[in-house]
Amino acid sequence: FSTWTTDSTDTEASLEETSYQEFTNRSFDSASRITDQKIYNYLDSTKALVLDVQGIRSSNFDARRQATLQKIATYVVGNAGEEILLDGKEITSSDSNAMGYYKHVETVTYDKAELVGDDIVLSGLRGTQIVDTASFDTMGNALDQAIKRNASDGQAIDSQHILSSGFDLHNRAADSSITTYTSKGEFASQQE
Question: What is the pLDDT of residue 80?
Answer without folding.
Answer: 86
